[in-house]
Amino acid sequence: MVKQLGFMFLLLVLGTQLHAQSIISYATLNKKQAYIGEPVQLTVSVYTSTWFTSGVDVGNIQIDGALTVYFRSLSNSRTFNGKKYSGVSFYYNLFPNKTGELIIPSLSINVESPKPDNYKGIKHAVKTKPETLKVNDIPMGYDPNSWLVSNGLTVQQKWSTPLTKVKVGDVVQRTITRSAGGTLSEFIPSTAWDSIPGISIYPKRATVNTTKAKTYVSASRTETVNYLFEKEGNVLIPGTTYTYWNPGSQVFYTKTLDAVPITVAPNPDLEMLASIKKSLQKTVEAEVEQEEKPFTILGLSAKNFSIYVLTGLLFLFVVYKLTKRLLRWIKLKRLQYLNSEKYAFKQALSALKQHDSGQFLIKSRIWIKTLDSRYETLSSFAQKFNFENLNDALLKYNQDAFQKKTSANTKVIVHLKNALVQSRKVYLLQDEKIKPNNNKWLNPTAID
């Protein structure tokens, strides 16, 4: 009873009181000490006196000195100090990978929960207290290179060919597969291959795999080795023993593959032995080189690839911005051109060239208004500036196009076109001369 009251008090101290709304968060371990590779259950729980209006975000839990495996979350309820709380618990397995004191840091949990008299969720960030796990050294007398913690271990082996018909120069492949429960593939040690007189050994790269279910994790490691038999006679493939520690029963267990005797028959054709040996050696060297070769993307290291990607994205962003500005500038210039006197004059000449007197009348008035808003027609413009050639051309064009009600002949049109071009040129030159000098001050100061 005293222990229960003490635990309840600890939970209430860890809780965060916010305006009569209580949020409690804590982390617990199912054991206080463990060996390297021994799974330790970490449970992270958070409770509220009301309810959660959105999912609880625990974040990515990373612990220095251990591998972390997330399993599941479970909604539940608990009673604290006589009051019922709704909550959710997150279950993890920690696998220590070095000895010493392992610190599970304070975890920040983001939640949304309303006040008791409201329904709108309020964001809160609550923290758990740090926890400590003692990671023990491997017991004396056990090889650290073959250390394994597992709930159970199965060992299987197979041979590529029958061992009753082996002769000198033959290559026999041996495959050993170990499946271990309650651990990760990173913690299954490699097999130590004993040297055997008269046999050359060529190990291949191991294949590892980790399988995770909702409440359990298991792993496997498959290792293959090639035996090249170089001498005739009787040889013995040594037995192999695998030892593991079962954390549930707190007992060491062993799995043994018995020794295998083989009689190697003679082979008169020994010329191919050297080439086979060379080929196997190249295979081993290629696998070792592949393992040692750094990870690359398109022939680049991850760092250089990231730099190229970021540089490319920056370049594309700059190109996009410049293109956007260029298109906006082109659009503005196009709009300015469409509203310009030059474009209006071009449209008027186009209508004139097409022998369309109606359109020419409309387009010429638009041009005149654009050129000088004081004038409504070509005639008034020509009279004002004494463009006799333009007056004469307009008179002949009007006679042909409107009085005779026929299309003006080409000679008249060419005459009018030349008169328009010449008159516009003279007007623009005069207009340029009377423009003020922009280099002078707009408001000059009198000099005494």
TrEMBL record:
Annotated signal sequence range: 1-20
Keywords for this protein: Membrane, Signal, Transmembrane, Transmembrane helix
Coiled-coil ranges per UniProt: none
Chain segments annotated as transmembrane: 305-323
Record PANTHER family: PROTEIN BATD, PROTEIN BATD-RELATED
Protein name: Protein BatD
